Amino acid sequence: MNLFGKLNFNCVFSSSLDWFHSSRLAEKVGTKKTRFCRETESFYAFCLSHRRYLCYALEGLLPSRPRGRRASTYNLSDNLGYIRGLNGKQKQLIKKLVHICMIDGKKTRSRAIVYKTFHRLAPHGDVIKLLVNAIENVKPICEVKKVRISGTTRLVPSIIATNRQETLAIRWMLESAAKRRMGKKSISLDQCLYAEILEASQKMGIARKKRDDLHKLAEANRSFSHYRWW
């Protein structure tokens, strides 16, 4: 017989607490010799106030945390396989994606969005390989900067550092995913980011078009490249 079942849990602890108060131990709670008595009473009071959750825990029925859009946490047990066995560069890339996606310091929420995106990408092959290919296809090689020359503003092309190339690629994919979600509250951000990464890995999508437009602009202004002083 399970004494800690839902039906018997209340009567067991209620009768134990009644016995404690009816005995002489309850009269000696205020003395120094009865520290055990004080702790026992507090334990019984705690059990009575949390009897619902204790019943679930003892029977293995503890409800899981919510997984909806408003949930602050996400169960990572299904996604830990995607971050095991990676080298330092790949781990740094995932950290950068989480940090760029983060708003107002909500890193747990950002990490949940990224791992949900990885979970959606899993049926299409290696998740990390898809992410790396998408970033490689979106990374811009050069950019243009405005330079004031003799009262005229010129667009001077320049080479972009490798670290900034990855940052711009991730930022553009997140911006494209946010544009997809505008006006569609029923679609979550991880769904839009999943679609954008999948298209970018195939050299398609809004982020890829933005990279091509930037390269065309730099090619059109290559005659002003000698003005670059940095």
TrEMBL record:
The keyword Mitochondrion applies. One of its GO terms (biological process) is translation. Residues 90-222 form the Small ribosomal subunit protein uS7 domain. Keywords: Mitochondrion, Ribonucleoprotein, Ribosomal protein, RNA-binding, rRNA-binding. One of its GO terms (cellular component) is mitochondrial small ribosomal subunit. It comes from the Eukaryota. InterPro entries: Ribosomal_uS7, Ribosomal_uS7_bac/org-type, Ribosomal_uS7_dom, Ribosomal_uS7_dom_sf, RPS7_plant. One of its GO terms (molecular function) is rRNA binding. Belongs to the universal ribosomal protein uS7 family. This is Ribosomal protein S7.
